[in-house]
């Protein structure tokens, strides 16, 4: 295969996926790892992509390696989050044993909850306060309190989760990728999310459109492990990967 043809195919794949990985390109283009690395170095040099460890990303797409404070995140995409949260709240039924992950969209969901004949467990401080104020039976995980997101993380939180089996779970995410799944910048938070997700019969990811094609440092679930609740998407790319509810 000619060099120019490889470059064209790499950029086409990058346009679709937002991120490419050396090992995947080696298989796709049936060439050596050293050749792919030379291709990525060249395309990075001429400004066609951004080279990162193990692959490359679109120039306008960088890995998200930090969490914004709750006070900042609460101001972003409010109408989308409200629509998503309001719909998600209707999915809770009598006798459900529900996990609510810490997050701004899950917090908004809590405002719309009406089912009192259910049990709620959360690792979010603000969410726990809201649930209590509404008179719901509420449990909160033990562990370390993370300042920026007000989430409870750590070994104690994971040990507590191992006792539970949830009928439904509602999770926030910082990124959604068809290759890297659901991601978050903080490894400790990812471990808690991963454990809770694995113990949930019917898990939902609550995500506005800004979270799609974004990748953070730590994966806590594969794309097909949960149903995504979002607003109207611009394309059908993710519909082939998992169930999506557009509200």
Automatic annotation (TrEMBL):
Key words of the record: DNA-binding, Transcription, Transcription regulation
Residue ranges of every copy of the HTH deoR-type domain listed in the record: 3-58
Claim: Mitochondrion is one of the keywords in the record: no
A Pfam cross-reference name: HTH_DeoR
SMART domains, sorted: DeoRC, HTH_DEOR
Transferase is among the record's keywords: no
Membrane-spanning parts: none
InterPro entries in the cross-refs: Carb_Metab_HTH_regulators (IPR050313), DeoR-like_C (IPR014036), DeoR_HTH (IPR001034), NagB/RpiA_transferase-like (IPR037171), Tscrpt_reg_HTH_DeoR_CS (IPR018356), WH-like_DNA-bd_sf (IPR036388), WH_DNA-bd_sf (IPR036390)
Molecular function GO labels: DNA binding; DNA-binding transcription factor activity
Protein name: DeoR family transcriptional regulator
Native organism: Clostridium isatidis
